[in-house]
Fold this protein.
Amino acid sequence: MKWYCKKVKNKWCIFLEQKYCKTDEPVCYGCAFKKKTALTLQKFDKTNWINLSTSTLSQGQRQLLCIMSVFAMDPEIIILDEVFSGLDLPTTKALDTYIKTLPQMIIHITHSLSSLEKCNRVIWLDHGKVLLDGSPKSVLQEYSKHMQRNVNL
């Protein structure tokens, strides 16, 4: 399946057929957008969402859709703030696996220590100050010791 654009009544429309946009036609933003949307949904096995209203999705599904929209923009740096909160276990595992394949720099803000174990670098922030910066093993070990000493549960 391939997307192509065609002018209909002075508007550029998107068509799904077995051919590409012709080189003599202007670049169609809608065409690229629709293609990127379809590819992103396909990566997450959610192509059945293409024509759904977001109001029909659960809270976790809407959160995943928002995260997928960031991936579709293909930014150089992705900042993820508590990206797994509110997601079910299968979605969390699939998303975590996908994130690990991304070529972009990922800044992952989380309280989930296990999701930081495979990172290249961990920075421990407390009240806006860097307490420790280093390998996941060293930072997470010190963080765990600090929590055991200073937090009464």
Remarks:
- The chain has four helices and six strands.
- Confidence is low (pLDDT under 50) at residues 1-7, 11-27.
